[in-house]
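User: I'm writing a tutorial on reading structure tokens. Could you give me a worked example: one chain, its sequence, then its tokens, then a sentence or two explaining what the tokens reveal?
Assistant: Sure. Here is the example chain.
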Amino acid sequence: MAFKGDFVRILILDAGKPKSNAMGEVKATIERLEKTTFEFGRLIGDYIPGDWSEETLESEAIVKREPYGLILAISPFNYPLFISATKVIPALLSGNAVLLKPASADPLAPILFTRVLELSGLPKESFSLLTVPGGFMDDIVRDKRIRAITFTGSTEVGEHIIRTGGIKAYHLELGGKDPAIVLNDANIEESVEKIVKGIVTYSGQRCDAIRLILVEEDIYEQFRESLVAQLSKIEPKNPLEDENAIMGPLIDEDSANYIEEIYKDAIEKGARPLLEFRRRGNYVWPIVLEVNNEILPTLRAFNEDVFGPLALLIKVKDEDEAIEIANSSRFGLDAAVFTTCEKRARKVARKLEVGSVFINEYPRHGIGYYPFGGMKDSGIGREGIGYSLEMLTTTKTIVHNFRGQGVWEYI
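And here are its predicted structure tokens:
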């Protein structure tokens, strides 16, 4: 039997997670499973009377939620246990059979999770684990027996899945370029503390990591000084050697090479580094690049989904300019706004083209108690307790015609 500590150890060994991150992922997975009973309400369906239209008089309909049948769930490397569980359990709960394809980079947690499901008595015909390299998945994705696909990963792979899979139902949680907007009435130290966490948590290998920091000019100098001071204290460490490590390694050498390429591209185009670039193998230290509006659209760091501890810092004259810059991104997953003024917070939240806005907090989704998902190139659909279940079921409308049967005579 697997215990909580086994999952924590595997996430440290296989995914390179600091112990605190690994424990947080396991805890969140357990809590999400405990709260699956909250999801049943989404299966109730609707009753629609036909009284409101002459065409449908003396009829009524029930709208049922039904399973698709066979669902393919593809989970990413950054939360291999939690995201696998939050795709599989709602799909099973709503009556589907599930094929789970874990990330090849760190599949051990999903494999152990599969063993737990087996030991729990889950019928074998309802669930299978696919330990298949991504390059061999096209034939599976296009298989007509698969009626829906739920995928978390990059926008590019998400687009490829749609092109390959054809007509199916899709639930896609894709890349992000999450902006943090700091207004001039914000508590600077608290804002810096939150934004630092948003940059470095799991070494920035999160779709909801903060990548873009937009600060009003009145407080810009003070904010920049504090941000640099805080980030300069953080360094990646081996989580097996230091249980208190804040950052660990990137998932592989290719990821570290990519971050270095993105950094060099920005420097060549005029970005100003606020911290010395440091790298040791898969370990990359936090990176903040100061840029202006002119060069921003040319940077790969702005146009691509950068999975690492790299953020761009920009001075803006007011919240309107911050909103304009944030919305110019092709991504629209999450955003954060820091202010002590509720009116300004609501204005910014209303105008941002993103799926979730966090006020005085960095983007994070925990167990999925609140729904989340993206706009634009950041995805299709929403995840979260109840919302995931809606994405993994379809609706069937059943209309009863009572004309001529005298039913309405007794109403």
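What the tokens reveal: The chain has a mean pLDDT of 95. The chain has 13 helices and 20 strands.
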